[in-house]
Amino acid sequence: MSKKSIDRKEVLKTLKLRLSEGKTRQEILEELSEQYFDRKSLSIFIASTPDQKTIDKYKILNNILLLLLLLSIAAKTIVGIVLLSSISIFLIPFVFIFSLVNIFFTIEVSKFKGYIYNILGILTLAGILKLLSNFDVYGKGILIDVAIGLVIALLSFYLGRKMFPNYGLFGPKKDANGNMMLE
């Protein structure tokens, strides 16, 4: 059998099937490595994909995170439209461009993609710091946005750590021997 380039959909389908069959992640990596090139990318897919038991366990918290992200998107879109329309109607498309980034994060969280949680937490904390640096301009009105942002950041880091304990900011963590930790 000859190896081929990675087909993301096919790999994820096989990965989820093998996880549901009870195979270990290392066994799945060995099986997929026989079919596909790029063992490192396969390791990343495997480490960032939760099994069904983990999804079921953290589904409620993930749904709360999704709800907060949707609330944040709606609020920022409305405020952006109101503020930019007072300057120029031609600036309104920028509101939707910035919303697309948040929508991307929301879609990835809804799919339980392991790589997104730490990135979301870090970017949310950066947004909070930016808001707080402008506290004298916006006043106490930003405290609600800061509170929602803190909950989003905390949930993101918590879910990332609990659902993907061996997945760090830059991919799967490595053990003392330099091997990627998948379990």
Structure description:
It is a single chain. The protein is mainly α and 183 residues long. Helix content is 73%, strand content 2%. Strands 1-2 form a two-stranded antiparallel sheet. Helix 4 (52-87) runs antiparallel to helix 5 (92-110), helix 4 runs antiparallel to helix 8 and helix 6 (114-133) runs antiparallel to helix 8 (142-163). The protein is elongated, with a radius of gyration of 20 Å. The two termini are 28 Å apart. The mean pLDDT is 88.
Quick overview:
With 183 residues, this protein is mostly helical.
**Rounded average pLDDT:** 88
How many beta strands in the DSSP annotation? 2
Computed over alpha carbons, the radius of gyration is 20 Å
Number of helices: 8
Helix content: over 70%
Major β-sheet strand ordering: 1-2
Q: Output the structural class.
A: mainly alpha
From the N-terminal CA to the C-terminal CA, the straight-line distance is: 28 Å
Keywords, please?
183 residues, 8 helices
Question: Topology of this protein?
Answer:
Blueprint (H helix, E strand, L loop, with lengths): L7 H13 L4 H11 L3 H9 L4 H36 L4 H19 L3 H20 L1 H4 L3 H22 L3 E2 L2 E2 L11
